[in-house]
Structure prediction request, 507 residues.
Amino acid sequence: MTEWTDEYDVVVVGSGGGALTGAFTAASAGLRTAILEKTGLFGGTSSYSGGSIWLPGTQVQERAGLPDSTELARTYLRTLLGDAESARQDAYVDTAPAVVEFLERDPNIEFEFRAFPDYYRADGRLDTGRSINALDLDPADIGDLASLVRPELDQDRTGQGHVPGQLIGGRALIGRLLSAIVGTGNADLRPDTALTELVVEGGRVVGVVATHQGETVRIKANRGVLMAAGGIEANDAARGEHGTPGKADWSMGPIGANTGDAIAAGVTAGGATALLDQAWFCPGVAQPDGTAAFLVGIRGGIVVDANGDRYLNESLPYDQFGRAMHAHGADESSWMIFDSREGGGLPGISIPNTAPAKHLEAGTWVQADTLEELAAKAGLPADSVRASVEQFNDYAKLGVDESFHRGEDPYDNFFCPPNGNPNSALTAIENGPFFAARIVLSDLGGKGGLVTDVDGRVLRTDGTAIAGLYAAGNTSASLSGKVYPGPGVPLGTAMTFSYRAARHMAG
Ligand SMILES: Cc1cc2nc3c(=O)[nH]c(=O)nc-3n(C[C@H](O)[C@H](O)[C@H](O)COP(=O)(O)OP(=O)(O)OC[C@H]3O[C@@H](n4cnc5c(N)ncnc54)[C@H](O)[C@@H]3O)c2cc1C
Prediction:
């Protein structure tokens, strides 16, 4: 018999948007809930995120007068993903309105629609997108809890200063959920507490073993354990074992946090896994310290491979961009070439945004007065670089990218407001000095993990559910396979299936 240190109804492992939604749902249902977080801060990658949440057809889209509906969202997912995961697709879109209605009932939580186009041209798409965000939050409104929310990515990784102000994006979501959870009076926040194994008795998960400040704790979970503790993204050995492209240093989660502990514990308990070679991919700007910065919202320049040739539409949604890099064998060998229109800055959003001077000093960027010199400094063939730029400049004049159709999709122009060009996503590269920035394959987290059903229950390879064990977010294998349908699907699915898991535990 296990000697328990503590006893709860529900143990939640991790503290991203999914975990905290599950914890709030359980605690609101009167279940005593523990939230175990490995680090000293709550929110994980969810805190770093823009906080877009793809929860379609809810009261928030209705308030915004958006022509969204559950059926339209279902059509979009089915068109993109096919029937393979139809039960979980349906559970997702059918439950989304209830998740939002439930969360907004709490005075701490309020969402609004923010435009960000869906990522694919497919039936049911909304060109404005349909994602919602938690409203910005004044830290004073949640008192001491604000200091427990993981800082923004750039501040956390590089110490880049932020003027103290509102919690925005993912931090607003995490701050609001933490405050709502504490308000239930039924939950304990347990930072610096890392799950190491699950306790299985008679085929049922009955609790967890965790470490806290060097001590082992054994925590009983009478109703179940919900694991939403990220994927394997920060674990190079696991990435190598499963053939996940990219590497831990280039992944965008909190350094060293999401090492796949919950997935490994779930496998030991008999859980099946899928999609472990998959991630929510993106291009990354190589950083002087060997890490990468999430590159999004490209509004100028071109990207070339080691031969100096363009190979993709640079305005693609980031996951498709990352997949195109990998398919082209250009995970480590891509360069973004741009001119001085933005004063030597990158014509795109880089998070973190390291100063050009530091890049130039480290050699992650090079600068030159001519394209030939630039190519030589970057180790690229000068003829091809010149030819790629000249052809792109012709396309910019024409307003048509005859090679890769950049600027033909509403997403492509989302970050490129009208700029006087025939196609605002195509701006000639002609004002020297010129720059080349090294681009690598990055990701926003893994999307492979434990196989789960519509209630987030972890399944064995024979399809039976492991009693008492639930997984969500990047700890579970995503229902969207190799596709990133739209902004906020990682958070939206994590929150929906954590909500469903908690309701299942509450009976
Ligand atoms: C810059 C950026 C912007 C993004 N923008 C968006 C967006 O707008 N919308 C969107 O949907 N997605 C976005 N993403 C992706 C999204 O943030 C992640 O995919 C998602 O937050 C993952 O949620 P999660 O709960 O699986 O993991 P996380 O949010 O990373 O939470 C996992 C937590 O578990 C903890 N943990 C790990 N192991 C253990 C253990 N053994 N015991 C206890 N705790 C453990 C970790 O410390 C971490 O705090 C973005 C990502 C980045 C980097």
